[in-house]
Amino acid sequence: xGSADVNESQASVAWGNELPDWVLLMAQACDRSSQAAVAKxxxxxxxxVNQALKRTYTGSYTTLEAxxxxxxxxxxxxxxxxxxxxTRQCLDEQARGYAPTNPSRIAIFIACRRPxxxxxxxxx
Length: 124
Prior knowledge:
With 124 residues, the chain is mainly alpha-helical. It folds into 2 domains: 66 residues, no CATH class; 37 residues, no CATH class. The chain has a two-stranded antiparallel sheet. A hairpin with a 3-residue loop joins strand 1 and strand 2. Helix 1 packs antiparallel against helix 2, helix 2 packs across helix 3 and helix 5 packs across helix 6. The model has no long low-confidence stretch (mean pLDDT 90).
């Protein structure tokens, strides 16, 4: 580790031997740019990234992990409506919700709730 690897070092200390691969990769991405830039890329707040690196985030790490795996690690899965998409894109589509005037949004909304293993919300 070089002297510029502040985020990686911080994550290593905070997580110790339990440092997940996705947290390490997020820390390295932050060292290459900034926490704010990585947060923007992931679609989360910079506070969430900062707290995750310090292991002080009090919420669930599940969605952040999925965003990191999709955006920074290229993890994909098959959506019945959109085809092959990243985990990050899947989460973004879920967050967009229902739009009764848009046939694509309707199809995605329905497909997400037919139990999709990647759906993070509550089925309606």
